[in-house]
Amino acid sequence: MEFFEVLKRRRSIRRFQDKPVPREVIEKLLEAAFLSPSSYNKRPWHFIVVDDKEKLEALSRAKLGASGLKTAPVAIVVTADERKSDVWVEDASIVAEHIHLASYDLGLGSFWVQIRNRMHDGTKSAEEYVRELLGIPENYRVLCIVGVGYPAENKPPHGDEVFEWEKVSHDEFGRGFR
Ligand SMILES: Cc1cc2nc3c(=O)[nH]c(=O)nc-3n(C[C@H](O)[C@H](O)[C@H](O)COP(=O)(O)O)c2cc1C
User: Fold this and answer.
1) Ligand 1 centre and the CA of 111: distance in Å?
2) Under DSSP, is residue 75 helix (H, G, I), strand (E, B) or coil?
3) Which residue among 8, 63, 111, 154 has the greatest number of ligand 1 atoms within 8 angstroms of its CB, and so is best to mutate?
4) From ligand 1's centre to the CA of 10, what distance in Å?
5) I need a surface site. Which of 28, 56, 147, 159 has the fewest CB within 10 A?
6) Taking a C-beta distance cutoff of 8 angstroms, is the pair 115, 144 a contact?
7) Residue with the nearest Cα to atom 20 of ligand 1?
8) Domain 3-153: assigned CATH number
9) Is the pLDDT of residue 1 over 90?
10) Whose CA is nearest to atom 19 of ligand 1?
11) Considering only CA atoms, which of 127, 96, 134 is closest in space to residue 112?
């Protein structure tokens, strides 16, 4: 699909068909992830592909706003080694967006579940919860989980309302660009 069509049509999909995603399609998503840029090309990431139903169900309870993972046939947990890069957040965010966009291009739906800086409950962070569930070492930080699958909901493409030209300045902050 044409790149700008992918950008326009990608929407967050949180309900999925009960249909597995073939292994080769998941590998394509991971290829998209590996094609991400990273600061100093340090590539600090590590991905955990989760397709175990019980684990997906447990991940859907990681925090408020994760419940869409209940119907997702697969989730990709995006982590990065904070010892390898001080800007692991940026590196991992780009990766997650690559996965998001590639999902749409491959006929899948996807959504981002924020884990970093979110709480599981009153005492435990969502990151600790996911770390314990999946046995993630301390130095690997959990940015987010991308839930992926064949969509069970339809959303319209983005319209022109996203083009917020008033948020663009020319030469100095606040001077209109357009
Ligand atoms: C950093 C970030 C964190 C997000 N966290 C969540 C989340 O925890 N749960 C969720 O359902 N959606 C989450 N989203 C998806 C946004 O709600 C969604 O992208 C936004 O509402 C715009 O809708 P669209 O993706 O359909 O364009 C997140 C998106 C980003 C970029």
Assistant:
1) 7
2) strand
3) 111
4) 12
5) 159
6) yes
7) 12
8) 3.40.109.10
9) no
10) 12
11) 96
